[in-house]
Amino acid sequence: MAKKVGILCSGGDGPGMNAAIRSVVRCSLAAGMEAVGIMRGYQGIFDEDFISMNHRSVSGIIDRGGTILKTARCKEFTTDEGQKKAVEILRKHGIDVVVVIGGDGSYRGANAIWQKFQYPVIGLPGTIDNDLNGTDQTIGCYTAVHTALEAIDKIRDTAHSMERIFIVEVMGNKSGYIAVEVALGAGAEEVIVPERKFDYERMNQEIREGRQKGKVSWIVVVAEGAGKAADIATAITTMTGFETRYVVLGHVQRGGCPLGQDRILATRVGAAAVDLIAQGIYGKAVGVLQNKINVVDLKDATQKEFDHIDEYMSLVRRLT
Ligand code: F6P
To answer: What is the pTM of this model?
Structure first.
């Protein structure tokens, strides 16, 4: 009997998720399987909110941000009873396997039903945080960095014209990936991330010295998990006496038309997920490592620190 493949997005959305959905749906159909969209992530399982998907269901979405299946963070699915109930519902509806497009927390949930109930799952890396193992990049992270860079280029103009220090807060609660990429790409003077301790006294000293030498503006990029831009701005003004402003880029980074790299990554991993399903291989996370499809156990895919964090941070310092 043809396999029925469920697809859901879970956690924070990211540009490129639609391209992943399209790829999983079309490759499943091409392989003679059925495709079923699960609305609002794991919540859609409890709500039994399933939609049958055909070739046309995913037309014209490759360039659209967000996710046509919607996404959510679902508390019930984090409990043992919730996971057991979800598996019962999926089995009742004849859904043989679920492809989960999401980040760290979503992978944990998927791995839980695989380990505890042997329910077949495959994970696709869908998060702007780029904090998953087994893949160089995650779906959405290229676009999020690009979007933040576009904003900082504009902030630089006003910072320089009005001779101010700007603190720019980017997303990343536990992950400094976006912050270091953006700091390097924007030519920022400082970057503050949750993974490393930051020496505020050193920065304030350098700002004072820089001003004496005629430097007029600074861009300080901070990841949201490392501190609040508003508090950092107030502290800098107090300690240096210089005018400081802050900008929180926030959810702007999660939206918009996905860059080519995100669409291509999403399309490749989506197709690879279907290849695994066709072979009856489950409990895996698919990524692209050194430009090759890479498959790891879901249990090993979570909790990654960006490999190049120290290199990027020291480059930001060297170039200031
Ligand atoms: O995990 C993706 C992410 O965008 C993080 O960078 C951020 O900390 C979080 O989601 C924000 O979540 P929410 O949209 O639920 O506020």
So the answer is: 0.97
C-alpha–C-alpha distance, residues 293 and 42, integer Å: 26
pLDDT at residue number 1 = 63
Q: Which atom of ligand 1 is nearest to the CA of 254?
A: 4
- Report, as an integer, the average pLDDT of 116-128: 98
Q: Which tokens is 5 given?
A: 């493949």
Residue in this structure with the two tokens 């495709």, named with its chain if needed: 35
**Segment 68-89 mean pLDDT:** 98
**Average pLDDT over every residue of 232-244:** 94
Residue 197: both structure tokens together: 């301790």
Residue 125 β-bridge partners: 102
Alpha carbon of 137 to those of 2, 145, 146, 266: distances in Å?
Answer: 32, 12, 14, 10
Q: How far is the CA of 47 from the centre of ligand 1 (A)?
A: 23
Asked if residue 2 has pLDDT above 80, the reply is no
What are the residue ranges of helices labelled H in 74-140? 80-92, 104-117
Q: What number does the ligand 1 atom closest to the CA of 172 have?
A: 6
Give 264's Cβ-side CA count (13 Å radius): 9
How far apart CA 211 and CA 236 sit, in angstroms, is 13
Task: Name the closest-CA residue to atom 8, ligand 1.
Answer: 173
* 30-67 per-position pLDDT tens digit: 999 999 999 999 999 999 999 999 999 999 999 999 99
Q: Is 157 a catalytic residue?
A: no
Q: Which of 13, 96, 129, 262 is catalytic?
A: 129
Element (H, E) at 206: helix 200-212
Tell me: pLDDT of 187 over 90: yes
